[in-house]
Structure formats: C-alpha cells, structure tokens
Specification:
By secondary structure, the chain is an alpha/beta fold. The protein has helices at residues 42-52, 56-71, 110-118, 121-128, 147-150, 159-165, 167-173, 184-192, 425-432, 438-454, 459-472, and strands at residues 2-5, 26-29, 34-35, 95-96, 131-136, 139-145, 155-158, 197-201, 211-216, 223-224, 227-232, 237-245, 253-255, 258-263, 268-275, 281-284, 286-291, 296-303, 308-311, 314-317, 323-332, 337-346, 352-361, 366-375, 383-392, 398-407, 413-422. The longest helix is centred in the C-terminal third of the chain and has 17 residues, at 438-454.
Length: 478
C-alpha cells in the first residue's frame, strides 16, 4: 500500500465545508480485485451483476436501464453545456477489492481504514451517531448500527445487503419514487448502481441520534453510483447524514447517485448532505421523497466542492397535510458551477412546501438556482414559500435564478422572494475602521449571510463551516 497525497497546502480550497477540503485531498494506491474496465455497454452491466450475484430481476432491471440511458439524449432543459465534457467511455463503472461490509473498524483493510480515520469517521461515530456506513469506491467497507437502535427493529445496512436480506421490503419501494426513465442520469445509476444505504424504521420508532453514510471516491477516472432507499413507517422519525469527498485528479470523476425517501403517515425524515467533492468531480444526482398523509420530509443540503453540481432535492406531497422542505447552501469558487435548487409537487389538499436557498459566488464561480413548485387546479388549502438569496463576492462572479411556479387553483397561498447582493468595499472598509482585518470583515459578512441556515446543520458541521469561512476569506474582495 502506498499513499498518494495531492494536498497543495494546509488551507482548504473552499471558503467553507462540512469537512475541510484539504483533509480529503489524498488517495491510496489500491489493488482492486474486481474492475469492470472503462466504458459502458451490456458487458459492463453483466459484469457488475455477476460480481454482485444479482437476482434475475435485478439483472433485467439493469439491462433495461442501460437501454433507457442509451436512448435518452443529454438533458438540455435544467442543464448546462458543461455536461458535454463528460466522456462516458473513459469512466470506470465498478471497482472493488471484494470486500464485504465489516462490523468493526479493526476488520476493515488497512488502506481503507486509514482513509476513514484520516477523515475522522470513526471518531464521529463514537461521539454522536447511532450508526455508520462507509463506502469506498463501489462498495461499503464498513456498516454498523448500535445495538440499542437495532433492538428497536431499525434496519440500517448497505443496499446490496438489503437486496438479499430484505428483498420484499426493498423491492416494494425500489424505483417507485424515482423511475428508471426519470432522466438520463437516473437511468445510468439504475444500470450500474452499487452501494448506498437502506434504512427501514418501524412504526412509531423515533431514532434519537443520526445515522450517517460517508461516500469516498479513491480511484481516478471513476464513477460512483450509490443507491439509497429510506423508509419511515407510520409515525416513525429518522435523521440521516451523508458526507462526500474525493481527491483532486487532473481527469474527470463522475458521481451520479439516486436517493429515494418514503415517509408513511405521520412519519418524519430529515436528510442532511455535506458535499465536499474535489473540483474535478461531476456531481449529478437525483433525490426525491414521497410524503404521505401528515408526513414530513426535510432536505438540508450543503454544496461546496465539485466542478459541476446538478442537484434538486424534491418532495411529492402525496398525502393530505404533508409537508416538504428544502434548506440549501451552495458555494461556487473559481472553475465551479453549483446548479442547485428544489422541486415541490403538491398532490393533496392542505399540503405545505418551503424552499430556502442561499448561494455564494467567489472569484469566477457561478451559482444557479432552479426551482419548481406545482399545485394542480383541484387542490385547496395548499401553501408554498420560496426564498432564494445570492451573495456575490467579486465582480467576476455570477449568479442566476430560474424559478418555475405553477399554481392552477384559486384557494392556495404561494409566495416567492429572490435577492442578489454584493459585499461592497465600503462595507468592508467600515468594519476595518473598527479594528477588523479584511479577512475578518469578509468572514463576518458571509457568516451573517448564511447564519440562519447554518444553525440548522448539526453542531459539528456548523462550527466547522464558520471556522473555514474565517480561514479562507482573506483577500477575497476584488
């Protein structure tokens, strides 16, 4: 085992993150026992199915998804031209060392264990988590849930394990919230998916501490395609957190996940993401929840790294008095485009949706908000609120807002607010006259801008976010 450390300096590359970007900018030279090779075709999909010992219906599901992917053109609506730079023939779609998820960190292979130790995952598990899954490239290396939670009947495991151990429960909802043909990248994921989390919370069970998954890309020219399914039964409550990092390579890396959430009557799901990919990663994911009667689904999203992120967490408000919410922070630095937003589809009376999005553009970074709210004509008593605020740090940074709000009925309440502001040199000068450095003044402005949303992140992430703003705002006015 040899370590390849690509860290350019001790400072993080981005002004804030859930985890310091520099701490994730390393990789290990790993010998993979299973490698599907580069390029995507029927042979690639068959190889993955054979290695994973898929059931016949999963093998057929993958092959049908491959046909859908090949038939669909690259998206042009809700998309950017940068997608044209993805070369699917150069991507490696499956890499693993044949590992099965271990239940203790001592059992995890040394190179993989050292990766997660350096990222602080075992320490986080000891401090405040009810369970952890750690995925390394295509497969989970570690998966464990605390006994006290397991005894409540909660299931938390890798999706591959769940397919074999709980096939009826998994199959009932798998691909139902996000169909294979939803978009080109959901079809791609459906063809080559590997890893991801499966969670089932029994009726009335409230998981008091978060469950967490950590997705790590180690290999160059690699694509990671995890598939996550979370089911909260009637009256159940659960919080799930995911973190993501990858080393910085000169070539492109692809991450294309699918996440499906199902909240049955009166259930609550909170899904927290801190994305901190290196800036060579194309992060193209599809995330959607289905909320039944009086259920609540809340996405809390922090998007920092990547070359291009396209992510629009959504909620289909299927049941009466259900509620959906998306809280997001995005930061785009030089060479980065954060194309993020939310989708809310009201499908029943007295449903409520709330979208609050804040973006920061630094240098020549670009942030884009795309939002969709749909309320059909026959519904009554629905409420929807959208707020999207952008902060420009430099004169060359850019932000765009593309809201799409369709309200057919007359007995519903909808409001939308958008604002764009700049951190002016006069404002910085005012604070410097009171004894602050330029970096401190900039940090104060940016922290104030995101503070109301940052407070909704777990304390560990919120503190780190503010600390990194303090570190990285020196010299960012210009």
């Amino acid at each position: 085992m040899s370590q390849i450390d690509t860290t350019a300096s001790a400072a993080a590359e981005n002004p804030f993150a859930g985890i310091d970007q520099s701490s994730g900018n390393f990789s290990y030279d790993v010998k993979y026992d299973f490698d599907a090779g580069s390029g995507l075709n029927e042979r690639t999909v068959d190889y993955i199915s054979t290695v994973k010992k898929d059931a016949p219906w999963i093998r057929e599901f993958r092959q049908n998804a491959l046909k859908a992917f090949l038939a669909k053109p690259m998206p042009t609506h809700w998309a950017t031209k940068d997608l044209e730079n993805i070369n699917f023939d150069k991507i490696r779609y499956y890499l693993s060392s044949g590992q099965k998820p271990k239940r203790t960190w001592d059992e995890v292979p040394d190179d993989i264990k050292h990766t997660f130790e350096r990222l602080g995952i075992p320490e986080q598990e000891r401090k405040f988590l009810a369970g952890v899954e750690a995925q390394f490239d295509s497969e989970a290396a570690y998966s464990n849930i605390k006994d006290v939670v397991s005894k409540q009947g909660v299931i938390f495991m890798n999706s591959g394990e769940a397919l074999k151990e709980h096939p009826d429960l998994f199959r009932k909802w798998f691909g139902k919230v996000i169909p294979t043909g939803d978009n080109k990248f959901s079809a791609l994921n459906s063809a080559v998916f590997s890893g991801g989390s499966f969670i089932y919370v029994p009726p009335g069970v409230k998981v008091s501490h978060p469950l967490q998954a950590y997705f790590r890309i180690n290999a160059e020219n690699f694509g990671q395609f995890e598939r996550t399914l979370i089911i909260a039964d009637e009256g159940a409550e659960v919080t799930y957190m995911e973190g993501c990092t990858a080393p910085k390579f000169s070539t492109s890396t692809l991450h294309s996940a699918v996440v499906e959430l199902v909240a049955l009557k009166g259930a609550k799901i909170q899904y927290i993401t801190v994305q901190n990919w290196a800036n060579n990663v194309f992060n193209l994911v599809t995330k959607r929840g289905l909320a039944h009667e009086e259920a609540e689904i809340k996405w809390i999203d922090c998007n920092i790294g990547s070359r291009l992120t396209m992510k629009y967490p959504g909620v289909v408000l299927k049941g009466r008095k259900s509620r959906g919410e998306v809280i997001s922070i995005a930061l785009a630095n030089d060479g980065q485009h954060q194309d993020t937003g939310a989708k809310m589809v009201h499908g029943a009376d007295e449903t409520t949706s709330n979208i609050v999005a804040k973006s920061i553009s630094v240098g020549q970074g670009r942030s884009t908000y795309r939002g969709l709210v749909h309320i059909p004509r026959h519904l009554k008593g629905c409420k929807s609120n959208t707020e999207c605020d952008a902060l420009l740090i430099n004169t060359n940074s850019r932000t765009d807002t593309y809201p799409s709000i369709t309200v057919r009925g007359s007995e519903n309440s909808v409001q939308h607010e958008a604002s764009v502001s700049k951190v002016s040199e006069e404002q910085i000068l005012y604070m410097r006259q009171r004894g602050l450095t330029e970096g401190q003044a900039m940090s104060l402005s940016v922290n104030g801008f995101v503070n109301d949303l940052a407070s909704q992140f777990p304390m560990e992430y919120s503190v780190e976010l503010k600390r990194l703003i303090d570190l990285e705002m020196e010299g960012s006015v210009g």
